[in-house]
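Section 5: illustrative case.
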């Protein structure tokens, strides 16, 4: 993965293997809206991973899943037990995910696929303790 930006303000080129993507910020915060925001890509990663994981499981079980649609939102909210809600650091990330399963599936199959959705690798990463190392390239 290579990400670079230049003097085009927030417009950012993303190279992921053989794929070329654009990231940007909306116009109301100074971007040109040439592509999804970084949080847009993060949310899309969760949605794509969810759909792929559910599809893989249904295919392996040979269940009649015709399609999976995942709708997501992301927001920064205050934790319910927030003791110091005036500080920006008191905000937490909240993803809301609604999954639509199309196909002739039993209630038990649908329930199992919803359980599997929570096992997608991006979901697990977002819920885990993450370490990020940053170094200046010499």
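Designed sequence:
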């Amino acid at each position: 993965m290579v990400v670079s930006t230049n003097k085009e303000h927030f417009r950012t080129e993303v190279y992921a293997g053989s794929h070329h993507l654009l990231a940007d910020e909306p116009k109301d915060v100074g971007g040109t809206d040439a592509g999804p925001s970084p949080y847009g890509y993060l949310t899309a990663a969760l949605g794509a991973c969810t759909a792929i994981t559910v599809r893989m499981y249904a295919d392996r079980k040979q269940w009649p899943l015709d399609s999976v649609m995942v709708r997501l939102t992301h927001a920064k909210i205050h934790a319910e037990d927030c003791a110091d809600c005036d500080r920006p650091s008191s905000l937490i990330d909240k993803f809301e995910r609604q999954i639509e399963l199309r196909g002739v599936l039993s209630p038990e199959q649908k329930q199992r696929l919803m359980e599997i959705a929570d096992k997608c690798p991006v979901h697990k990463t977002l819920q885990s303790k993450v370490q990020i190392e940053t170094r200046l390239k010499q």
